[in-house]
């Protein structure tokens, strides 16, 4: 892997844009959408209160919120919110926010140390600060922070997993991946990468971590709440109903299933997942052709994380799972067209707007019935800027692979 050289300026631009948009997002929420402040944390707070009373915290919904605002993590995790429930939601939210920032900074530190170790140079404090800001308060991180989500913890766990695996500490890596998957479920797909690495001890550690977590939940809360977790938190995530007839242009999802559902509105939506797999499997197999050096592995990890993000019906806040290895690649990848695609994709992925946002802007400019609106609506129905940006990142990985090894899928 080469040393860090002339790529730093464009990398700083990507990080700075992400941070600036994140701050803008915060100001918008504080000034115009205060009802969204702590909207996820109040769910966790209520779950902690109900758990103290011995009730079913999977059916508890805070007053004034829709039914889908309920606890969605494994039973044992609620114990992390029980102490916070004892001090009131406002104090609890402040403590939770502080801990979230700490988790984000831990993830940023892992990324910085990785870049410095592989790049064989110490990053200036400006770069360190931008990386920390990007992880903690960028456009995709800020909503998790102000809503009271736990995605910063997931970023830290994933970064720890990849860094530990790079240093052949498979047990630590697997435990970190297993913890992320135990809480959020979809990071379990990182197991595809572990299989490609033949990291058997990491796989065993990941599976063991999840088993222990579920076993503890069963022992502490019993079978009924374990079943409730599956019914109220797991099964609804796999419901394809919203994609029937083509995903609504105002839907939040960032997924390859969006254009698939628009192109094939008459197909049974239960098949969209299979079609997404058919679309994504070949490029990932192509990236997996060889992983002999660290650069190959970083690019393959990038493709893996992009595929995970766009395969599932993901929300834009989950773009944070790309931070490792996106930030290291921006610093370490050789200058050229693949890196240009990565930079362009990272910038475009920061444009977190949907058709309903565009409608507001067009209405403000009195252009709701214009030709521009007629062009933009089908475009945003087919793909959001965020989705296009993420796919550009994948394209950069594929081009890098093609330039380095040629078009063949397998080693000769």
TrEMBL record:
It is a multi-pass membrane protein. InterPro entries: GT87. One of its GO terms (cellular component) is plasma membrane. The keyword Aminoacyl-tRNA synthetase does not apply. This is DUF2029 domain-containing protein. The keyword Nucleotide-binding does not apply. Keywords: Cell membrane, Membrane, Transferase, Transmembrane, Transmembrane helix. It is found in: Cell membrane. It holds the Pfam family GT87. The chain crosses the membrane at residues 12-31, 91-111, 131-151, 171-195, 202-230, 271-288, 300-324, 379-399. One of its GO terms (molecular function) is hexosyltransferase activity.
């Amino acid at each position: 892997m080469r040393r860090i050289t002339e790529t730093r300026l464009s990398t700083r631009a990507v990080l700075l844009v992400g941070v600036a948009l994140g701050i803008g997002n915060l100001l918008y929420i504080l000034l115009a959408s205060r009802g969204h402040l702590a909207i996820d944390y109040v769910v966790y707070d209520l779950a902690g209160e109900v758990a103290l009373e011995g009730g079913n915290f999977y059916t508890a919904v805070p007053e004034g919120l829709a039914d889908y605002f309920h606890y969605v993590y494994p039973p044992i995790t609620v114990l992390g919110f029980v102490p916070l429930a004892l001090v009131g939601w406002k104090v609890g939210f402040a403590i939770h926010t502080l801990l979230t920032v700490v988790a984000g900074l831990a993830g940023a530190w892992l990324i910085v140390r990785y870049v410095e170790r592989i790049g064989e140079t110490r990053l200036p404090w400006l770069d360190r600060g931008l990386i920390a800001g990007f992880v903690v308060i960028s456009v995709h991180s800020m909503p998790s922070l102000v809503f009271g989500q736990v995605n910063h913890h997931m970023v830290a766990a994933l970064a720890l997993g990849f860094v530990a695996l790079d240093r052949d500490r498979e047990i630590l890596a697997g435990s970190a991946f297993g913890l992320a998957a135990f809480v959020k479920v979809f990071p379990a797909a990182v197991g595809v990468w572990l299989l490609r690495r033949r990291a058997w001890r990491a796989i065993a550690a990941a599976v063991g971590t999840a088993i222990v977590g579920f076993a503890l939940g069963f022992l502490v809360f019993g079978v009924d709440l374990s079943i409730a977790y599956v019914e109220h938190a797991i099964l609804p995530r796999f419901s394809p109903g919203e994609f029937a007839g083509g995903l609504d242009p105002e839907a939040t999802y960032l997924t390859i299933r969006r254009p698939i559902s628009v192109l094939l509105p008459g197909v049974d939506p239960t098949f969209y997942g299979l079609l997404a797999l058919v679309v994504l499997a070949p490029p990932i197999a192509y990236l997996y052709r060889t992983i002999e050096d660290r650069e190959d592995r970083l690019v393959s990890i990038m493709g893996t994380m992009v595929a995970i993000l766009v395969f599932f019906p993901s929300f834009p806040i989950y773009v944070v799972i790309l931070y490792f290895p996106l930030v290291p690649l921006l610093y370490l990848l050789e200058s050229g067209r693949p890196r240009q695609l990565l930079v362009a994709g990272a910038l475009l992925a920061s444009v977190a707007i949907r058709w309903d946002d565009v409608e507001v802007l067009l209405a403000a400019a009195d252009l709701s019935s214009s030709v521009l609106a007629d062009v933009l609506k089908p475009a945003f129905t087919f793909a959001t800027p965020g989705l296009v940006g993420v796919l550009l990142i994948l394209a950069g990985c594929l081009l890098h692979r093609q330039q380095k090894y040629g078009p063949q899928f397998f080693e000769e």
